[in-house]
Write a sequence for this structure.
């Protein structure tokens, strides 16, 4: 067995290997292997096992890279399945207002929120958008993310949405993070259509989706199904049009209230229903029966001061695969860190460390339909890994310098 890349001298490899998604009690199985090694060739893993077995079976090429873990743990590269990483403008002033007691709805009513980002993004040049997006992806990479989803949704015209997705494609072409693009033209009804919302839905269905599909700019279509934004019926119509155009489906559901989004997600069997702060047990049962992943975003709940988190424990107990994401965005996703999302999932949602790790790796990869090549450390998958300075549990030590190195396709792309 020949390899050109080896990680050795570990305390533990948490491989998260095996079939996806992990559901119910199986979500707590992170595949722990004490003092394991991981070997790869050409960016793909060829061996995960004990050092003694590697010494017996494996051989390194003359130019092989050997990464000494120095007794630290190794986990798969994190997969972030819900981000709004491409945008222009700065809404940190809204955070100050929120800290002073203003609500999400009050800020939006004053022209803030999504509308503010739409105005800035429409006005931004492609070069500015690219530079800002690249910088945010760099932050995510340093936090261990090696694959992510990225949504449009701050253009809300066909031209502006296409601009965002074209910039995203250009940035992703030469960035270490592997990007899965999503059309989110139904993120909000733009101001100029508020009195004729049906006309905007027609724009999304008849112009935006076909244009994106023609250029193959997106893999997914998403809709913000929420009271005051898009109704369940409108969301269903948009998503069905996207499916007809060849896009895969995901959606924002039940974030700010019981909007009915989880019912639409289950009915359409979308791959992922995201947020789900207000999902109830009946909604969870429907998601479980339909095989829909619950992608939860505890960082958004935290920064939006919503006062509650998604019922992750209930979802797992009722057989829903749970994934975690950061929701990087200008208004409430102020952290690029999947380890921080894991921390909040453990301490505000009731997950164990292993459940959170699976949610940030294998189940997150399944939420992006990339579980065949990322999200776990096993032969045949990409050599995407995070080296931890100490035990794997140190990842939830917020603010500590716990990530020693990040590997993508068998290449160290960040090291401390």
């Amino acid at each position: 067995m020949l390899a050109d890349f080896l990680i050795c001298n570990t305390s533990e490899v948490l491989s998260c290997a095996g079939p996806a998604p992990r559901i119910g009690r199986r979500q707590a199985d992170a595949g722990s292997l004490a003092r394991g090694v991981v070997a790869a060739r050409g960016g793909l893993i060829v061996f995960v096992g004990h050092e003694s077995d590697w010494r017996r079976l494996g051989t390194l090429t003359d130019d092989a890279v050997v990464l000494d873990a120095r007794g630290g743990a190794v986990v798969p590269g994190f997969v972030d399945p819900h981000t709004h990483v491409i945008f222009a403008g700065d809404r940190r002033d809204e955070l100050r207002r929120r800290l002073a007691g203003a609500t999400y709805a009050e800020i939006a009513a004053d022209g803030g929120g999504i509308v503010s980002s739409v105005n800035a993004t429409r006005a931004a040049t492609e070069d500015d958008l690219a530079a800002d997006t690249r910088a945010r992806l760099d932050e995510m990479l340093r936090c261990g993310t090696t694959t992510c989803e990225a949504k449009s949704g701050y253009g809300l015209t066909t031209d502006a949405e296409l601009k965002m997705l074209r910039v995203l494609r250009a940035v992703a072409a030469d960035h270490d993070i592997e990007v899965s693009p999503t059309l989110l033209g139904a993120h909000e009804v733009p101001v100029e259509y508020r009195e004729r919302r049906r006309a905007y839905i027609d724009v999304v269905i008849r112009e935006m989706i076909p244009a994106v599909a023609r250029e193959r700019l997106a893999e997914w279509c998403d809709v913000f199904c929420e009271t005051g934004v898009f109704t369940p019926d409108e969301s269903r119509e948009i998503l069905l049009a996207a499916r007809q155009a060849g896009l895969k489906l995901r959606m924002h559901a039940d974030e700010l209230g019981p909007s009915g989004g989880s019912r639409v997600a289950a009915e359409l069997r979308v791959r992922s229903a995201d947020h789900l702060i207000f999902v109830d047990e009946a909604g969870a049962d429907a998601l479980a029966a339909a095989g829909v992943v619950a992608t939860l975003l505890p960082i958004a709940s935290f920064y939006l001061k919503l006062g509650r988190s998604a019922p992750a424990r209930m979802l797992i107990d009722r057989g829903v695969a749970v994934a975690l994401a950061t929701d990087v965005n200008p208004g409430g996703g102020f952290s690029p860190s999947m380890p921080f999302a894991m921390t909040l999932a453990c301490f505000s949602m009731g997950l164990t460390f292993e459940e959170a790790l699976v949610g940030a790796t294998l189940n997150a990869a399944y939420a992006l339909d990339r579980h065949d090549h990322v999200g776990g450390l096993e032969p045949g998958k990409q050599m995407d890994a995070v080296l931890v300075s100490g035990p794997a549990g140190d990842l939830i030590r917020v603010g500590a310098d716990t990530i020693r190195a990040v590997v993508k396709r068998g290449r160290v792309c960040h090291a401390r």
